[in-house]
Amino acid sequence: MPDQSPTPEAMLFAFFNEVGILAQLSRALFEARLPQGFNLPQFTVLNHLVRVRDGQTPLALARAFQVPKTSLTHSLAVLERHGLVEMRPNAQDGRSKRVFLTEAGRRFRQAAIKGLMPDLQAIATAFPPDRIAATLPTLTDLRQAMDAMRDTDPDPPQAV
């Protein structure tokens, strides 16, 4: 009887298929809780500036998110118009700008996360948090490995 276990590639495809579905479901859930006129990419910029650091150039942010600079520029314009980020001249080259989170941006991020809490509590009731905690190290390791691959790939996939 032949071995019926899936190939590593098939297992990875199934894994990333589930991750993609989860991303779509979580995006819809989160965007339903954001204030009118805001979307998840805008929130993720704020979250990135808190999580990693602010003061990055729009080009560096576009690379981090693997999106065209024009898409990121639109998100930054919306955030700046609402006073959530501030664009300052780049002292290193004088041509580009750097993106800084404002106090209003920090409060907006916290309020957005707080608005999601009832949904997260409902999920925690149906899906025990200890199971989530057990998967986090693996997901973190995978993200870090993929980040490293992205950062060293001389020919990265182009965003569409």
How would you describe what is shown here?
It is built from six helices and two strands; from the N terminus they run ααααββαα. Strands 1-2 form a two-stranded antiparallel ribbon. It is mainly α. It is 67% helix and 6% strand. It has a single domain (10-150), classed as Winged helix-like DNA-binding domain superfamily/Winged helix DNA-binding domain (Arc Repressor Mutant, subunit A, Orthogonal Bundle). It has helices spanning 8-33, 40-51, 58-65, 69-81, 103-126, 129-152, and strands at 85-89, 97-101. Helix 2 (40-51) crosses helix 5.
Task: Compute the separation of the termini in Å.
Answer: 45 Å
Number of helices in the DSSP assignment: 6
In percent, how much strand structure appears in the residues? 5-15%
CATH topology: Arc Repressor Mutant, subunit A
Question: What integer is the average pLDDT?
Answer: 90
Main sheet overview: 2 strands, antiparallel
Number of strands: 2
Helix content: 55-70%
**Domains, number:** 1
